[in-house]
Design goal:
This protein has 761 residues and is an alpha+beta fold. The chain has 4 domains: 2-22 and 327-382, no CATH class; 91-264, no CATH class; 416-517, Phosphorylase Kinase, domain 1 (2-Layer Sandwich), CATH 3.30.200; 524-735, Transferase(Phosphotransferase), domain 1. Helices cover 30% and strands 22% of the residues. It has 18 helices and 38 strands. A 7-stranded mixed β-sheet has the order 3-4-5-6-7-18-11, with no helix packed on it. The protein has a 6-stranded mixed β-sheet with strand order 27-31-32-30-29-28, with helices on both faces. β6 (76-81) and β7 form a beta hairpin.
Length: 761
């Protein structure tokens, strides 16, 4: 009967492991536990009588979406409050930027310093912050104090000249806090700092006639946001970017809105002092007191070994049931407050622990007893396993549903519903994860069409027999989620034969999935530049492709309810169906704009070689920026050459094309087949149209509607003489049955793969 009781105990443990969920009090009874996504544990609190003292009062601003939490009402936005078991720190956003700017005559025009005073609070500046300075020929000095001591320090930023391309937000710590000539330095802040001031001083007059850059900056932030002791760069900048202070600050949010780490403690007395006055003692039962060091008084509380929870609340530290959570014993585990004990059944010896000697059978155990026990225990085990299996199945089903709901919300399902202004997703079909898994043989490697840095595209067949391309992201972060939602919203508004169709999406998986029509013949880039292609583009086909792309862009700019700017037109984003009809794809960075808007002011996004130079300088994207990118694609079709050369000495394709037009030597750059098949006049007209699209001034470029009309006009002039040729080409396409797959571009200047594989930035 011994093993009967043992297996009964095992059964109870299994049952508890499926249903047990320890909950610990977080805040005082009746107090708010959340502000947006931030959990507010006591001694912090929202509202009257919910915090330990005014220093821990949290103001929750519900006018923002999501709500934001602040210390001292405003100024310090709280982003993280660490668990009591891991330390007494919080992270806040605090715009503590020191700025020093000068005009061309050397007169100071802007001057601001950093000043932080926490002396009347329970907070100090944590030692895992850095004072970082960025600029040229500037001295940043720091002064501060704690309760019992003061300190000072500083560092110097140096630059060799204004054309240096180095410079990092993080200064390597293996060279005493600075690297000569990289325009950056940093210094540490001691633990316990309550009052801190930092100043910038210009030193260029000491060894240089003029100041290299108008402004210099200093700020305090979390060292781990900049790589910490491992010296990993979270971002870098060319020093000459400091020529434009406005753009430099807008492009570097870690500088303008750094994260500051604060230590907090209880009161100003140490443990030995406060334990004499139990009425003021904050550590509750099953917890321990630890002095807050760093030259300031105060203490913090932590749950004792074997307990977990909030040590500042009554019954806040609760016993950890190691038997359920860790299963430390071979046989029988008995939990008691703060610890546990393992034991072995009769006929076995040892300490019973997995990490110890375990339980070993005794040689004196009767064979007959073992047989009887084995039979009865086997029956008991089967019953236990059957019940546990059933409970596990119910548990897994509930868990799966919760996971799907969680993934749906995390992957932007609610945001997508909101943006479509409907109770459902409008024309966008929601597909279940199970169907997509079945369509791709559970995302088998044999179904992969292509891979890129951000995702993978699989070929699949839906239950209704439709062949599709399924794009699965590798990672999900806030920026990618925004592009994912944007692409779904944009494509749900578009119905055009030359724009790739979005058939549906799946939001209930760990990463969102997009389902597109399957386009078997790869990208226009591959067709133009892949010398091994079995299909050669004639002049008439190139002209038709150009006209179709222009028609699609004209539709996006002029025919939709709200104009849509694509923002990443390039030959790798033009796909080809089974009849080599082009389809514009990859709308992750596209934007709809109001009818009364003329441009978008955004961070520059796109692909080098296709970017509008005017957009690159102003950060203002207009419909003429798409026109410029189309002009590059048109030049690719005319020349058969890639936009970026393989060597640095060679000029870009656009520069060489424009030079050939200006010198009336266009024939030197044209593709051989274009020169042979196209009439000189019509080829020149297309080249002249491309030249207009590539005008450096956007206002002198034609609209996409004008471009589409012009290309169609040129095509009509070629129709009478090429009807038979086009008929033969069409017949050849109808009879062909190419088994083509999407592959990555062979270009050395761009790491993009097929646009349906991931969003390009």
């Amino acid at each position: 009967m011994l093993l009967h009781s043992f297996f009964f105990h095992v059964f109870i443990c299994l049952l508890l492991s499926l249903t047990f969920s320890a909950t610990y009090p977080i805040t005082k009874p009746g107090c708010q536990t959340q502000c947006g996504d931030l959990t507010i544990p006591f001694p912090f609190g929202i509202g009257s009588n919910c915090s330990m003292d005014p220093s821990f009062h949290i103001h929750c601003n519900t006018s923002t979406n999501p709500p934001k939490a602040y210390l001292f009402n405003t100024g310090f936005e709280v982003t993280v409050i660490y668990d009591h078991n891991y330390g007494s720190q919080i992270r806040v956003k605090y715009p503590n930027l020191a700025v020093s700017c000068y005009d061309s005559l050397g007169n100071k025009t802007v001057s601001s310093n950093i000043s932080i005073d926490l002396s009347s609070t329970q907070y100090t500046v944590a030692e895992n912050n850095w004072l970082i300075a960025i600029g040229c020929d500037d001295l940043v000095t720091i002064q501060g104090r704690s309760d019992q001591s003061s300190f000072g320090g500083g560092c110097l930023t140096l630059c060799s000249n204004s054309n240096d391309s180095g410079g990092y937000w993080l200064c390597p710590n293996n060279l005493n806090g600075y690297l000569p000539s990289n325009g950056c330095c940093r210094t540490t802040i001691p633990k316990g700092t309550m009052i801190l001031q930092a100043y910038l001083s210009d030193l260029h007059g000491k060894w240089r006639m003029g100041k290299l850059f108008p402004c210099s900056y200093a700020f305090i932030g979390d060292m781990y946001a900049f790589g910490g002791d491992e010296v990993y760069h979270r971002g870098s900048y060319p020093i000459h970017d400091l020529h434009n202070p406005t753009a430099f600050l807008s492009d570097n949010p870690l500088i303008t809105s750094p994260t500051l780490v604060l230590d907090w403690r209880i009161q100003t007395e140490n443990c030995s002092q406060v334990e004499r006055n139990l009425t003021a003692y904050a550590c509750q039962e099953n917890s321990e007191c630890f002095d807050f060091d760093g030259g300031v008084g105060g203490y913090i509380c932590r749950c004792s070994t074997g307990y977990r929870g909030n040590p500042y609340l009554t019954l806040g530290c609760q016993d950890i049931d190691e038997c359920v959570e860790n299963h430390p014993c071979d046989w029988i585990c008995i939990n008691y407050p703060g610890a546990f004990r393992c034991s072995c059944p009769d006929g076995y010896y040892g300490d019973g622990r997995h990490s110890g000697s375990g339980c070993s059978p005794s040689a004196r155990t009767s064979t007959l007893i073992n047989i009887s026990i084995g039979v009865s225990s086997g029956v008991m085990l089967l019953v236990s396993v059957a019940i546990c299996f059933r409970l596990q199945k119910v548990y897994q089903k509930r868990k799966m549903k919760k996971c799907k709901d969680k993934f749906f919300k995390r992957n932007g399902g609610l945001l997508l519903q909101q943006q479509t202004n409907e109770g459902t997703l409008g024309k966008t079909k929601l597909l279940p994860a199970r169907e997509l898994e079945k369509a791709t043989d559970n995302f088998s490697e044999s179904r992969i069409l292509g891979q890129g840095g951000q995702g993978t595209v699989y070929k699949g067949m839906l239950s209704d027999g439709i062949i599709v391309a399924i794009k699965k992201s590798k990672l999900v972060d806030e920026n990618q989620l925004e592009q994912f939602i944007n692409e779904v919203v944009i494509l749900s508004q578009i119905n055009h034969r030359n724009v790739v169709k979005l058939l549906g999406c799946c939001l209930e998986t760990e990463v969102p999935l997009l389902v597109y029509e399957f386009l078997p013949n790869g990208t226009l880039f591959d067709l133009i530049h892949n010398g091994d292609s079995e299909f050669l583009l004639s002049w008439n086909m190139k002209l038709k492709i150009a006209a179709d792309i222009a028609g699609a862009l004209a539709y996006l700019h002029s025919a939709t309810s709200l104009p849509i700017y694509h923002r990443d037109i390039k030959s790798t984003n033009i796909l080809l169906d089974e009849k080599y009809v082009v389809k514009v794809s990859d709308f992750g960075t596209s934007r709809s704009i109001a009818l009364d808007q003329t441009h978008l002011t955004t961070l520059v996004k796109g692909t080098f070689g296709y970017l509008d130079p005017e957009y690159l300088q102003s950060s203002q994207f207009t419909e003429k920026s798409d026109v410029y990118s189309f002009g590059v694609v048109l030049v690719e079709l005319l020349t058969g050459q890639k936009p970026i050369s393989r060597t640095e000495e060679e000029k870009s394709l656009v520069a060489r094309f424009l030079l050939s037009m200006e010198t009336n030597r266009i024939e030197t750059i044209l593709d051989g087949r274009v020169s042979e098949e196209g009439r000189k006049e019509e080829v020149f007209n297309v080249a002249r149209l491309a030249q207009g699209c590539l005008n450096l001034k956007g206002k002198y470029r034609p609209t996409m509607k004008d471009v589409s009309t012009e290309l169609e006009s040129i095509r009509r002039t070629t129709m009478p003489s090429t009807v038979e040729a086009e008929s033969q080409e069409a017949k050849s396409l109808m009879l062909s049955d190419f088994e083509c797959t999407w592959t990555t571009s062979s270009s050395t200047f761009n790491s993009d793969v097929d646009p349906l594989m991931f969003e390009t930035v």
